[in-house]
Write a structure and sequence with these properties.
The protein is of the alpha/beta class. It has helices spanning 42-54, 72-85, 113-127, 146-158, 172-185, 213-220, 248-251, 262-277, 282-290, 309-316, 326-336, and strands at 15-17, 24-26, 28-31, 59-61, 93-98, 132-137, 162-168, 189-193, 223-227, 301-304.
């Protein structure tokens, strides 16, 4: 059946400017890290993507290694694009990344010019695209000169294969140096994609540069999109009554059951009570906290995953209440301290 998106799709979800660029992202973006590989039903993927766009999610985030197997999320998304979203391409922000292992030999990962540009070509072919809206260096390469990595991103833009560039998993000092190089090349960095949630706040703390990543992004006019705002599902009600057999923790997919310590689960239960007092689920509050009004400008968009339409809708509901009073912030800080 031909897909026609909801006419009301831009009515509810707010859009935020990405740093000092001309680009805006939805407050919540959809990541295809999990749930869009060949191990997941195609029709379920379609339902989630369609519902996301109907609700105003215009940004779909991918990487060359998303699957499983690696590359399959991009291939599947390419089919969804052909069958459902091709008429709406100019309404979409599609991003991809390169940095992790994709093929054998010395040129199949990290940050060399050869790898990044070859990977971008492969990603475009898998998705059936002429260009991506954002292309990222997925991780800092300690052995390749940063000038080479950044020049590859610059080339991606100048060749018309990407509109904007950014980095992911770069520290404050690495981001500062990369931004300087890109600015000199004439292709400014517009985005950094770090992990950030109530339990993991590393982007708030200064590194050896003396500045935090958040401070560097603010000073440089760079936007950010926070992945894992739900801490791989820990900051939801999913594990309050044990470990479900089909959960990430049970399957050992990035989240290990051993990580669900009693100390952490005590904190989760406390946070769940705080969320209920706000009239939110824990997942809604966790998304809202990342996007909170008190940190306006710090995080442009929260990057969520979704294995079902219901889960997607629950995550998007967090934008309905982004304000926190001082007592709520203090209580969240106290509950998560030391985790």
């Amino acid at each position: 059946m031909t897909y026609f998106p909801a006419e009301s799709r831009y009515a509810e979800l707010p859009y935020r400017r990405l740093g000092r660029s001309g680009l805006k992202l939805p407050a919540v973006s959809l990541g295809l890290w999990h749930n869009f590989g060949d191990d997941k039903p195609f029709e379920n993927q379609r339902a989630v993507l369609r519902r996301a766009f109907d609700l105003g999610v215009t940004h779909f985030d991918l990487a060359n290694n998303y699957g499983p197997p690696a590359g399959s999320a991009e291939s599947n998304f390419g089919r969804h694009l052909r069958e459902d979203f091709r008429p709406y391409r100019d309404e979409l922000i599609i991003s991809s990344k390169a940095g992790h292992l994709m093929w054998d030999g010395p040129y199949g990962e990290w940050g060399s010019r050869k790898y990044l540009l070859a990977s971008l070509d492969q990603s475009l072919q898998r998705m059936g695209l002429d260009y991506v809206d954002i292309f990222y260096s997925h991780r800092f390469d300690p052995e390749t000169p940063l000038e080479e990595t950044m020049s590859a991103l610059d080339h991606a833009v100048r060749s018309g294969k990407a509109l904007y560039v950014g980095v992911s998993n770069y520290s404050a000092s690495q981001t500062l140096e990369a931004a300087k190089i890109l600015r000199e090349l004439g292709t400014p960095m517009v985005i950094n994609q770090p992990n950030y949630n109530i339990f993991d706040r590393w982007i708030e703390r200064p590194d050896e540069s003396g500045s935090s990543l958040l401070q560097v992004l603010s000073d440089q006019g760079i936007g950010s999109i926070a992945y894992s705002p739900l801490a791989q599902g820990v900051l939801t009600d999913r594990y309050l009554k044990g470990v479900p057999s089909d959960s990430r923790a049970a399957l050992g997919h990035f989240l290990k059951e051993s990580a669900l310590t009693e100390e952490k689960m005590t904190a989760v239960r406390t946070l769940n009570e705080l969320a209920a007092a706000r009239g939110q689920s824990l997942a809604e509050m966790s998304v809202a906290w990342v996007l909170r009004e008190q940190a306006a400008g710090a995080v442009t968009s929260a990057l969520v995953g979704a294995s079902s339409v219901a889960q997607l809708e629950a995550n998007l509901a967090g934008v309905a209440k982004l304000g926190f009073d001082e007592a709520e912030i203090a209580a969240i800080d106290a509950a998560s301290a030391g985790i």
